[in-house]
Amino acid sequence: MKIAVLKETRSGETRVAASPETVKKFVGLGATVAVQAGAGEGARFSDEAFSEAGAEIGKSAADTAQSADLIIKVQRPSSEELRVFGRGARLLAVLAPYNDPDSVPAYARLGVDAMALDLMPRITRAQSMDVLSSQSNLAGYKAVIDASAYYGRAVPMMMTAAGTIAAAKVFIMGAGVAGLQAIATARRLGAIVSATDVRFASKEEVESLGATFITVDEEAMKEAQTEGGYAKEMSKDFQRRQAEFVTEHLKKQDVVITTALIPGRPAPKLISQEMVQVMKPGSVIVDLAAEQGGNVALTQPGEAIEIDGVTILGFTNVPGRLPADASNLLARNIFNFVSAFWDKEKSELVIDWDDEIIKGIALTRDGNVIHPGFAEAGAPAAKPEPAAEKADTGATEQPAAESE
């Protein structure tokens, strides 16, 4: 069986879908691996390192993908890339089909069996394959590091002969994977950290990391939570009071990190222009939802801007700002998936189309659209339900599933 690793073509994408470590493991399973020349440059993985791990180096995408049974990428392929895929090839990548529904029937027309890693079910068996969690973890860390770089003061409290420097106050809006890592990182740097989330169940996780959980009405949050830990829709009165409460809290903060994302929908707005205006000059906001429109009303995706003395960071592809680690984790997620469905006797990937994991991620098969969230024409049949158990949400919004 041949596995092809293609070089990413989208602007700003620094990651690669395999590492020398996972190439060696694929070869150990009995697979042949081809890596496109330069695929690992952004992550500092040389062609020589891939070759030493046992990979063949392809001169172009067409050479690399020729006769490939499985093609792995970070992001969905462009229309030009799809032309080099052989009919019957399987594609495994972060395809974001709800952001580009027209891509789904395109895979079917070309006879590509497409599987979206970003639709991986949030179940115990699939935890080691969960790219959203692995990438969000890095995003939460990097958000704090970026904020510290733009914040014009020290983060921890410092006692010097010349006087004491107060610790920075950091507020995390959303206590999912990215939010919890942001809390942990800010605490390591010595900040005074607070956080909020619409799910009261997050309170224990937030406090276990040494941060303060804030909300306007704990009793209302408890009543709004289902037995399964999901959040019901909060009342308009609660949303109004929570927004007022958060606005007062923002006046005292030095750094704010927002993390709310909902698959296939614009990012929920958590911070209005009026809220930004009440913040102290010199404070920093990091918007991890910039690629989907942002949680902050003034965010400009891909830009760092300053409004009335407040810096708003809207960097996109935040995990890609840590390309080596992001690629290593993503590559392990992919290997874990492949090895779980690997037939050792046949030395090939054997897909069980009735498996819960496959049902969750398979978009197309044998020229047909098979994912229940998409109609045959490729248009979404229904919006995905929020994955509340790992949601990163803000103060006034309902549960949101994290994206990378």
Structure description:
The protein has 404 residues and is of the alpha/beta class. The protein is built from 13 helices and 19 strands. It has helices spanning 20-29, 47-52, 61-65, 79-82, 103-109, 131-150, 177-188, 202-208, 218-223, 236-250, 273-277, 323-340, 356-361; strands at 2-5, 32-36, 56-58, 70-75, 90-94, 113-116, 158-160, 163-165, 169-173, 192-196, 212-213, 255-258, 284-287, 304-307, 310-313, 342-343, 348-349, 364-365, 368-369. A hairpin with a 4-residue loop joins strand 16 and strand 17.
Essential attributes:
404 residues, alpha/beta, Rossmann fold, 7-stranded mixed sheet, 6-stranded parallel sheet, 19 strands, 30% helix, disordered C terminus
Write out the strand line-up for the largest beta sheet, numbering strands in chain order. 11-10-9-12-13-15-14
CATH C-level label of the largest domain: Alpha Beta
Output the structural class: alpha/beta
CATH level 4 superfamily of the largest domain = NAD(P)-binding Rossmann-like Domain
Give the helix level as a range of percent.
Answer: 25-40%
| Beta-strand residue percentage | 15-25%
Instruction: Assign an overall shape.
Output: globular
CATH topology of the largest domain: Rossmann fold
Distance between the termini: 29 Å
Under the CATH scheme, the architecture of the largest domain is 3-Layer(aba) Sandwich
Task: Outline the low-pLDDT stretches.
Answer: 377-404
What is the number of helical segments per DSSP (H or I, 4+ residues)? 13
How would a crystallographer describe the biggest sheet? 7 strands, mixed
Q: Radius of gyration from the CA trace?
A: 22 Å
